[in-house]
Amino acid sequence: MYIESEKKNVAKSQKETFEFLKKVENFEKLMPESIEKFELLSEESFLFQLKGMPAIKLKLDNTEANHLVVLAAASDKLPFTLRGEIEEKGENASEVQLIFEGEFNSMMAMMIKNPIKKFITTLSENLETI
After folding, report:
1. Confidence at 42, pLDDT banded by 50, 70, 90
2. 80-83 long-range CB contacts below 8 Å, 24 or more apart?
3. What domains can you pick out in the chain, each with its CATH number?
4. Which residue in 32, 21, 27, 26 sits closest to 94, CA to CA?
5. Distance (Å) of CA 90 to CA 10, 13, 100
6. Which of 8, 12, 98, 130 is an S-S bond match for 16, by CB 3.0 to 4.6 Å?
7. Cα–Cα distance measured from residue 121 to residue 34, given in angstroms and rounded to the nearest whole number
8. In this structure, is the dihedral angle defined by the CA atoms of residues 11, 33, 7 and 71, taken in order, positive or negative?
C-alpha cells in the first residue's frame, strides 16, 4: 500500500523542518485530535494510539540530512514506513510530503486504507502550523 500526502508549505527553513521531524517527540504536536495515547519510549521511538485503532510503535529508522526522515513500525504485525521528504523553498520556507508504504494482505489493506489516508492528511496539515 502506498499513500502520499499533498505537499505542504512550512514557514521554516529546510534544516529547521528536518530538525523538527527528526525529534520524534514533536510528532505529538502533529497528531490528530482523535489521539488517545502518545508515549515517548526513547529519543528515537514513540507509541501512539488513535480511537478505535491498536497502539502503534514507531522508531526513527533513517535520515538524510535536511532532506529525509523515515519512521518505521517497530512491529512485524503491521510492517510499514512513514517518510517525510523535505525540499527547500527559500530561506525560511520548505515543502514537506509524507509518504506511507506498507505491505498488507488485501483484507487488511481494505480495512486500514481510509483511516491511514486520513491520518497522513492530518499529520501533513498540522505540519503547516509548526
Report:
1. very high
2. 80/1, 82/58, 82/120
3. 2-127 (3.30.530.20)
4. 21
5. 10, 7, 26
6. 12
7. 13
8. positive
